[in-house]
TrEMBL record:
Entries under InterPro entries matching the protein: Amidohydro-rel, Metal_Hydrolase
GO MF: hydrolase activity
Keywords assigned: Hydrolase
Domain Amidohydrolase-related: from-to ranges: 198-334
Domain of life from the UniProt record: Bacteria
Protein name: Amidohydrolase
Length: 376
């Protein structure tokens, strides 16, 4: 066993289902400011993994508003990020809004209440990003309104965004292709026919270089690959789009899949589709698969340029900083075990910057740490 895997496995013993696990997120005084990432790597201080945090600087999967009810106020939310290592965040709606008359705030608490794709939260997010200064945070606004089962009006709604928020939305998603957890709230999965109907809006996204994050369950415990053909159909239909597969297809409904089979499928698709990226957000990976840590760490180290980190935090007004800090910590524990090259690309933002064409750079890893890694 390598040292890195030993670290990962020891971290697994205090994984999220262990109530004693405390967040180990550093505060802003120790963390790098946004401005430092604007410098070329040779002008930044190298990153010392022995003394600096293992938590990511990018949260590429974050929901600033909940399915219903109040959200965490923007200035408070910006303080959350300021008090962690996160300097880059994707604002994912959330796109699916519970029926406003229901009074519901979380879809699983309200079976039968429709949760429908909507422009509501995107528009609020667009206003808040402009209304509040946040000099230590780079926010990427995302279009989350797309109904993938009914794509007919998507391009006309993109025109509405262009008119109301010109040039401000540079990501799309998280959009649901097939999300079993949401079926009780009348979520209508995409079909091969509706996927064919995405062509006009996928052409717009491709032309603008806008990535799209898709939630598409791989399957469930009864049939781990039940919905794989749907995602493969998407990838085969739109190979030139920047597609990010949320949670690598994992979900609470799929807890017992053979990890080698899972990784084999991911490797094949990464090979077949060079524009595909994998989102390793959400603590489901670490809840369901923590005993399989080495399988995944080796996979991440083998594909360092194809992975994006994130929390999948939903910023409901009832939540506190500690909850965000804990989710950031839990979802970053795999980063801690990665080799230096994968850590720089994934945790320190290099993949995110290149995917988005941003003028930011991940720092180099300090040589002393690199020497330790090389000696594994
Ligand atoms: Zn999400």
């Amino acid at each position: 066993m390598t040292a890195a895997l030993a670290v990962y496995l020891s971290a697994c013993s205090t994984m999220p289902d262990d109530e004693e696990a405390e967040p180990m997120v550093s505060v802003s005084n120790d963390s790098r400011p946004l401005s430092s990432f604007a410098l070329p790597p040779d002008q930044q201080d190298c990153y010392d993994r022995t003394s600096e945090p293992y938590t990511a600087v990018v949260d590429s999967h974050f929901h600033p508003r909940p399915f219903g009810g109040s959200a965490i106020p923007a200035p408070e939310l910006f303080n959350f990020f300021d008090n962690t290592t996160v300097r880059f965040v994707n604002y994912f709606g959330i796109g699916q809004v519970l029926d406003l008359q229901s009074g519901c705030t979380y879809y699983l608490d309200c079976p039968g209440v429709p949760a429908s794709p909507s422009i509501k939260n995107d528009f609020v997010n667009g206003m808040e990003v402009m209304a509040y200064p946040h000099e230590n945070l780079h926010i990427t606004l995302s279009m989350t309104f797309m109904d993938l089962a009914h794509p007919e009006n998507i391009t006309s709604l993109i025109e509405l965004y262009d008119k109301e928020y010109p040039g401000m939305f540079s990501w799309s998603g998280e959009l649901n292709v097939m999300k079993q957890a949401l079926l009780g709230n009348l979520h209508e999965p995409a079909t091969k026919e509706s996927i064919d109907g995405w062509a006009p809006f996928m052409a717009v996204l491709q032309e603008r270089g806008i990535p799209v994050t898709l939630h598409s369950d791989l399957g469930n415990d009864a049939n781990p690959t039940e919905f794989l053909p749907l995602m493969e159909y998407v990838l085969a239909s739109y190979p030139d789009n920047k597609i990010v597969w949320a949670h690598m297809g994992l979900s609470k409904e799929l807890a017992n899949m053979n990890p080698y089979e899972h990784v084999t499928i991911m490797q094949r698709l990464l090979g077949d589709y060079p524009n595909l990226m994998l989102d390793i957000s959400w603590d489901v990976l670490f809840n369901a698969y923590h005993e399989w840590g080495p399988v995944f760490i080796n996979f991440f180290n083998s594909h360092p340029t194809r992975i994006l980190p994130g929390t999948d935090f939903v910023a409901a007004g009832t939540k506190s900083f500690d909850q965000y800090a804990k989710e950031l910590d839990v979802t970053s524990r795999a980063l801690k075990a990665m080799d230096d090259n994968a850590f720089r690309h994934i945790a320190l933002g290099e993949n995110y910057f290149r995917l988005m064409g941003l003028d930011y750079y991940a720092p180099d890893i300090c040589p002393t740490t690199a020497a330790v890694s090389a000696g594994q």
